[in-house]
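testing teh design pipeline on a random one, pls ignore if ur not involved
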C-alpha cells in the first residue's frame, strides 16, 4: 500500500429521509487514482462534497493528511492539502489562461503550520503557476483569453487552477463531461501526468477513461457501495454486472 493521504470511514449523508450517501468508506493513496462510478443519483457528487467539506456528514469521519477534518470548513480543508474542481466554473473569462492560473496560485491561503510558505515570494507564486500550467498541458495556450478557449481547454484550465494551489489530494467530479474523443484523450493524458504526485478521487462516467486510469474502483448505487476493488475485480463482480454495467 502507498501512503494514505485521505481516509473516509463510514460516511452517511441524509437529506430528510433520503440517505444520499449511506455508510461509504474510501481511502485515497499517493500516486493512485480511485475512481467512483455509478448511475445518476447514486451519491457520487454528494460523496465528493462530503470529502471537500462543502457538506457535513450526518455520521462518519474523514482523516486528511493525518488530521481528523470531519466538520471542517472547505477553506480549512483546502489549506490541509485538498483541491477540487467544481462543475460550475471558477474561470474568469475576460482574463488570459496564464492570468487565471496565476491568480489561483496567488489565492492559495498559506498553510497555518508553515511560516515559510507565508513568506513565499512572487517568484514562488509564478513557479507554482508555471508548473500547474505545464501539468495541465496549457503552456501553448497561456496568452489565450479564457473565454475564447474550447470547452476541453476550459476544463484543463480549471484543473490547472486547482493544481496551482498545490493540493496533495485532488477530487475531480466528471472532468470528461461533455468532451469529444480528442478532448477526452487529452484529459486522460493530463490525469496520467498528475497521478504520481497526488492522490486522486475521480468521479467519471466515461468507462474507457475509468479503466485506463483507475487503480481502485468503487461502484455506488442508491448511496451505497456495491463493489470496490481493483478494476479487474470490479469488472468480474456479478453484482456489478447485473446492477450497473448491464452485461
Ligand atoms: P450523483 O452525483 O451520483 O448523480 P448526487 O450525489 O448528486 O448523485 O445525488 C444523490 C441523491 O441525493 C439524489 O437522489 C439527489 O437528488 C439527492 N441530493 C443531492 N443533493 C441534495 C440536496 N442538497 N438536497 C436534497 N437531496 C439531494
Ligand atoms: Mg454527480
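output:
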Amino acid at each position: 500500500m502507498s501512503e494514505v493521504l485521505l481516509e473516509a470511514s463510514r460516511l452517511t449523508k441524509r437529506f430528510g429521509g433520503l440517505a444520499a450517501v449511506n455508510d461509504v468508506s474510501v481511502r485515497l493513496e499517493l500516486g493512485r487514482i480511485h475512481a467512483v462510478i455509478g448511475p445518476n443519483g447514486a451519491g457520487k457528487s454528494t460523496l465528493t462534497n462530503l470529502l471537500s467539506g462543502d457538506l457535513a456528514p450526518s455520521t462518519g469521519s474523514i482523516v486528511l493528511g493525518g488530521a481528523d477534518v470531519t466538520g471542517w470548513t472547505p477553506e480549512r480543508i483546502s489549506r490541509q492539502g485538498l483541491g477540487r474542481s467544481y462543475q460550475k466554473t471558477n474561470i474568469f473569462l475576460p482574463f488570459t489562461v496564464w492570468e487565471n492560473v496565476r491568480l489561483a496560485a496567488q489565492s492559495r491561503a498559506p498553510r497555518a503550520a508553515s511560516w515559510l510558505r507565508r513568506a513565499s515570494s512572487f517568484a514562488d507564486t509564478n513557479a507554482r503557476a508555471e508548473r500547474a500550467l505545464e501539468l495541465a498541458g496549457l503552456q501553448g495556450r497561456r496568452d489565450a483569453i479564457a473565454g475564447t478557449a474550447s470547452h476541453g481547454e476550459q476544463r484543463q484550465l480549471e484543473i490547472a487552477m486547482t493544481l496551482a494551489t498545490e493540493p496533495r489530494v485532488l477530487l475531480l467530479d466528471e472532468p470528461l463531461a461533455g468532451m469529444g474523443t480528442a478532448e477526452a484523450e487529452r484529459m486522460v493524458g493530463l490525469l496520467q501526468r498528475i497521478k504520481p504526485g497526488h492522490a486522486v478521487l475521480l468521479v467519471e462516467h466515461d468507462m474507457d477513461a475509468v479503466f485506463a486510469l483507475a487503480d481502485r474502483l468503487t461502484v455506488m448505487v442508491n448511496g451505497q457501495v456495491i463493489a470496490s476493488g481493483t478494476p479487474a475485480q470490479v469488472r468480474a463482480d456479478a453484482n456489478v454486472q447485473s446492477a450497473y454495467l448491464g452485461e
